[in-house]
Amino acid sequence: MLRHASRGAGPRSIEKGDRGVRRYIPALAALIGLLSSQAAWAEGDRIRGRTLAIDNCSQCHVIGDYNPYGGVNNSPSFYVFAERPEVYRERLRTFDQRRPHLSRDMQVSAKEIQDIMAYVATLERP
Q1: CA–centroid distance for 71 within its chain
Q2: DSSP code for 54
Q3: How many helices (H) and strands (E) does the chain have?
């Protein structure tokens, strides 16, 4: 343990290596935020969400292992949704208000969207 020479042997001290740990604090905070955001957007029924995604989304999107080579070229894969929840969380919540979904008159409830989001949160690229 090192003590500040200018202050004598007072209560303020710095452990060796303490400054090295401090540089990781922003990365740890980001990781904790990501993990908590994953949990927050994964509160639905993931099994039902997979079924809903296959039934409603697989024509245009890659849905995990169901259709790994399917989808439409400009439609993001559900893997992308899972990898970037900070970007796609709100887009998934409001997808029915966005093109091209808006023009398709898709009828999906808020609970069903939550279920799809829970499924998305479980996805990892193979």
Answers
A1: 21
A2: H
A3: 6, 2
Helix (H) or strand (E) holding 32: helix 25-40
What range does the domain containing 68 cover?
Answer: 13-120
Cα distances from 87 to residues 7, 9, 37, in angstroms, run 48, 50, 11
Q: How many folded domains does the chain comprise?
A: 1
Contact in structure between 70 and 58 (CB atoms under 8 Å): yes
Q: How far apart are CA 106 and CA 62, in angstroms?
A: 18
CATH code assigned at 63: 1.10.760
Amino acid making up residue 66: Y
Hey, what amino acid is at 39? A
Q: Is 100 a domain residue?
A: yes
- pTM of the entire structure? 0.62
Query: CA-to-CA distance for 67 and 28, rounded, in angstroms?
Result: 35
pLDDT tens for the chain, 126 residues: list them.
Answer: 444 454 555 455 445 555 555 665 665 555 555 444 445 455 789 999 999 999 988 888 999 889 888 888 888 889 998 998 888 888 888 877 777 776 666 778 889 989 998 999 999 887
